[in-house]
Amino acid sequence: MNANREQWGSKIGFILAAAGSAVGLGNIWKFPYLVGENGGAAFIFLYLICVLLVGLPVVIAEILIGRTGQKNPVGSFRDLSKGNPFWIGVGVLGVITGFLILSYYNVIAGWSLGYVIESIKGSFQNLENPLAAGELFKTLSSMPQWTLLFHGLFMILTISIIYAGVTKGIERASKIMMPALLFLVIVLVVRGVTLPGARAGVHYLLKIDFSQITGKTIFLALGQAFFSLSLGMGALLTYGSYMSKKESIPDSAVNIVILDTLIAILAGFMIFPALFAMGMNPAQGPSLIFNILPVVFNSIPAGYFFRIIFFLLLTVAALTSTISLLEVITTFTVDEFNIPRKKAAVLLGFTVFVIGIPNAMSFCGWQNVRIFGLTWFDFVDFISANIFLPLGGIFIALFVGWFWGIKKAVPHLLEGTTNLPPFLVSTWTIIVRFVAPVLILIIFLSSIGLI
Ligand code: PFF
Which of 62, 111, 321, 389 is the pocket-test mutation for ligand 1 (most atoms within 8 Å of CB)? Predict the structure, then answer.
């Protein structure tokens, strides 16, 4: 046990912080638009299978590496592999991925904060249709001063929480924000499903049409499970390093996965019934919430109020994710280079802000700057989320399943756990050794177009 390392103040603190990392723009912005484009209930069905079959076992493996290693991703892999350079490289890959994801994620998070302010100002009050909302979205996101202002403000919010530390910052913030988030989602679900004509949306989310399932849907569902659970880059590993050995990893992992999945599905119920009630098409793509929702709110009672709540909710969800991304790189810098936490948080946050500027500018004038045909934003998103995360996930499973090895891993897994049935341990072992690496390899190869 590393005596100088801070620990979560309570079990629920860890669960809420890790669930906060998992629940984010992935659940509220990305999951609904993927559902809308890929067959509604059929996509949800596949997503649930992916979360259960691959997501949960790898979440357990990642937290286990962190709690046993008691360090940042690089330090934990180094100690557990006894200095093997390959596994140290896997830790470094995680830290780089955190840096990259934060540099574009913070831009979208900034938009959601900007939308809170615009909602309060009443900018969306007179929009009559999604086209008008789409135009407004384009205008706002293409103004460098607007996008960079909110990118910067959001980074300051993120830094201020990391600055305050693990228990006083992350844990305290998550304990307030996560219940608030769940409450706001439930309010909006109730509002959505009670609108006249909402029933078609509920059907859309519940009636599985198996003819909608294609190879692509399966890959998209698996990829989304990964991103949504914050898996494969050391965020859960880092949070696990603050976890006490008196607590059960499998129990906590189940809670985190349930909360993340619940909020994604509730986000679907918050959006689609309202969307169908307005007679709109669900397959809107990534602009779904920014283009459609401001208009949807215009035609419901108290829409002004619910619009503010919605974007506040998106901002809160994004913030509990950005803090986990900044924490990964901060704890790495603190552990490895002995830089004080506060200094590291400010320096790194500022650096990510600067590196994120080309991401923001991809919407404001730098649309034509292309790397392999993609804008800078799309390129960074693609290599970090589609390449580095699955790669990290495969390595985590292989590390625990083969290199460090099940024999050494299981006793650590059982610490803090009472009466875990042996068949669950063997199922986990089989998944971590065989099922997860093979399945993730398939998504990985497909996402880079090799199969
Ligand atoms: N899980 C977050 C979401 O669904 O929005 C995104 C994310 C956060 C990915 C932290 C990876 C990470 F380390």
Answer: 321
Instruction: Give the residue-averaged pLDDT of 46-63.
Output: 95
6 domain-assigned: no
87-96 b/e with 16+ CB inside 10 Å = b? bbebbbbbbe
> How many domains, the chain?
1
- 430: pLDDT strictly greater than 60: yes
Confirm whether 131 is domain-assigned: yes
Confidence (pTM): 0.92
Query: Is position 101 within any domain?
Result: yes
> What is the per-residue pLDDT for 447?
64
Model confidence pLDDT, tens digit, residues 325-349: 999 999 999 999 999 999 999 999 9
Lowest mean pLDDT among 69-73, 201-205, 291-295, 338-342: 291-295
Between the CA of 41 and the centroid of ligand 1 the distance, in Å, is 23
CATH of the domain at 270: 1.10.4160
2 located within any domain? no
Question: Which residue in this structure is represented by tokens 């602009």?
Answer: 287
Please report which residue ranges of 278-362 form alpha helices under DSSP H: 293-298, 303-337, 341-361
Domain residues for 124?
11-447
In angstroms, the Cα distances linking 141 to 25, 151, 229, 451 are: 17, 11, 27, 35
Index of the ligand 1 atom closest to the CA of residue 27: 4
